[in-house]
């Protein structure tokens, strides 16, 4: 059993928060390649991840969300694919230092549609995810998280690549959207939480997860956790956004405060979440609020145990 899965047997772990919005605040221009900063500005990535660690994160997600060869080629960075991914893990590990914790190697969507619906060959996607997964595992990632997925076909390829690379644990994370006509969620490709859970379990995913999505607040995240756990018996990770985004001065802004976001944490814990963190718009302040609440819950539990 991997260190990460063993840790989940004993306590709820806290992940980090958003990377993209933090990169923008650190000076990344719109449309820029934040993943290249792993090599070009590692100090800036280290500063972001150190703030999350200081806020109380147990798990740091590598800055490699868009670091597949397909994505990096759009920025003219394809020849640095392996180095960018390896550096992403190395910077996160450097932030951890000698503190206990876990580095989750991040694989995001390749950013297109595969044939026959799009113009990207399946073999190209397979090669890109294999390359990225191997680079992350070889660099020492404690797990691979395949996140913000909406199509099961793409998820399947990335999970297979992570397992082939020898990842100690594999996390599959789906982006659901709240439906307009009813209080339910589906992915952009029409996948329900139950379908996603069964699909991931059948392909050997170790931890089911959800992140990002439209209209998925803390309460809806808790509902998805319940639906996952009613379908298969696996640990669940949840990373909701910090509320709904609004456009201000041509910038996307998230206004949900740490106090507002942490108000929904008890429901997530009651649903049985094993790892909790934040996605878009969440900050070290949000994660610090989560840490304080998790510590209070753990302390109260210890006092009431016989």
SSE order, one letter for each helix or strand = HEHHHEHHEHEHEEEHEHEEEHHEH
Question: Which whole number gives the mean pLDDT?
Answer: 95
Poorly predicted sequence stretches spanning 5 or more consecutive residues: none
Question: What structural category arises from helix and sheet content?
Answer: alpha/beta
Strand order of the largest sheet: 1-12-9-8-5-4-3-2
Helical segment tally? 13
Strand content: 15-25%
Radius of gyration from CA coordinates: 18 Å
Would you count the extended β strands for me? 12
> What is the overall shape?
globular
Q: What profile does the largest beta sheet have?
A: 8 strands, parallel
The percentage helix is 40-55%
Quaternary arrangement of the chains shown? Answer: single chain
Distance between the termini: 29 Å
Give an overview in words.
By secondary structure, the chain is α/β, with parallel strands linked by helices. Helix content is about 45%, strand content about 15%. It contains 13 helices and twelve strands. It has helices at about 5-10, 20-25, 35-40, 40-55, 70-75, 80-95, 120-140, 150-165, 195-200, 220-230, 260, 265-270, 285-305, and strands spanning about 15, 60, 100-105, 145-150, 170-175, 175-180, 185, 205-210, 235-240, 245-250, 250-255, 275. The strands form three sheets. Strands 1-12-9-8-5-4-3-2 form an eight-stranded parallel beta sheet. Strands 6-7 form a two-stranded antiparallel ribbon. It has a two-stranded antiparallel sheet with strand order 10-11. α7 (about 120-140) packs across α8 (about 150-165). It is globular, with a radius of gyration of 18 Å.
């Amino acid at each position: 059993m991997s260190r990460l899965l063993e840790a989940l047997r004993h306590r709820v772990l806290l992940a980090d928060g958003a990377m993209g919005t933090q990169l923008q605040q650190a000076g990344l221009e719109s449309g820029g390649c934040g993943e290249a900063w792993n090599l070009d500005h590692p100090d800036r990535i280290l500063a972001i991840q150190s703030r999350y660690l200081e806020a109380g994160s147990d798990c740091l997600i590598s800055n490699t969300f868009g670091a597949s060869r397909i994505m990096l080629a759009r920025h003219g960075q394809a020849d640095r694919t392996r180095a960018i991914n390896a550096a992403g893990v190395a910077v996160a590990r450097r932030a951890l230092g000698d503190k206990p914790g876990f580095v989750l190697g991040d694989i995001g969507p390749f950013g297109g549609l595969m044939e026959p619906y799009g113009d990207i060959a399946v073999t190209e996607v397979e090669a890109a995810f294999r390359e990225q997964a191997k680079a992350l595992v070889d660099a020492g990632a404690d797990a691979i998280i395949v996140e913000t997925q909406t199509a099961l076909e793409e998820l399947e390829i990335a999970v297979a690549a992570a397992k082939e690379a020898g990842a100690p644990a594999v996390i599959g994370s789906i982006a659901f959207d709240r439906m307009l006509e009813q209080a339910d969620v589906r992915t952009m490709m029409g996948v329900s939480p139950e379908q996603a859970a069964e699909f991931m379990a059948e392909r050997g995913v170790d931890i089911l997860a959800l992140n990002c999505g439209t209209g998925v607040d803390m309460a809806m995240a808790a509902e998805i956790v319940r639906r996952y756990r009613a379908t298969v018996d696996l640990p669940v990770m949840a990373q909701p956004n910090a509320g709904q985004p609004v456009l201000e001065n041509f910038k996307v802004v998230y206004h949900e405060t740490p106090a507002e976001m942490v108000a929904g944490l008890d429901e997530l814990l009651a649903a049985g979440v094993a790892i909790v963190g934040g996605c878009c718009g969440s900050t070290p302040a949000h994660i610090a609020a989560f840490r304080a609440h998790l510590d209070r819950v753990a302390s109260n539990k210890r006092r009431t145990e016989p």
